[in-house]
Amino acid sequence: MTKADIINEISDKTGIEKLVVQTAVEAFMKSVRNNMAEGKNIYLRGFGTFLVKKRAEKTGRNISKNTTVIIPAHFIPSFKPSKNFSERVKKNVKVAPVEIKS
């Protein structure tokens, strides 16, 4: 599903013009980006939490030059779904059976 699909679905279900919905969706995403860039977490009860996680410094490898590289500590955005959200996905999304070839 794309952002355009989300805008179309909200517009169809609410009767609000697509341009108004697009403005609201864009404003929401901009707010999430700006607040997370400032290190703030965003809590949406019943949906999930947008978290700013810290990654510790670690040693990596540049395989093309065969050298060791130090990757400094940094922060990354992440999303943790609410318990209800996770349970609903687990219940409704089925794993396709795996065919074993002999």
Notes on the protein architecture:
With about 100 residues, this protein is of the alpha+beta class. It folds into 2 domains: about 40 residues; about 40 residues, no CATH class. The chain has a 3-stranded antiparallel β-sheet with strand order 1-2-5. A hairpin with a 4-residue loop joins strand 3 and strand 4. The longest helix has 20 residues. It is extended, with a radius of gyration of 20 Å. The mean pLDDT is about 95.
Whole-number tally of structural domains: 2
Major sheet, described briefly? 3 strands, antiparallel
Low-confidence stretches: none
- Record the strand order, biggest sheet: 1-2-5
Write down the Rg: 20 Å
Shape assignment: extended
Oligomer: single chain
Taken in chain order, the helices and strands follow as HHEEEEEH
Count of DSSP helices?
Answer: 3
Percent helix, as a range, is 40-55%
Percent of residues in β-strands: 25-35%
Briefly note the structural class of the backbone.
alpha+beta
Separation, N- and C-terminal Cα atoms:
36 Å
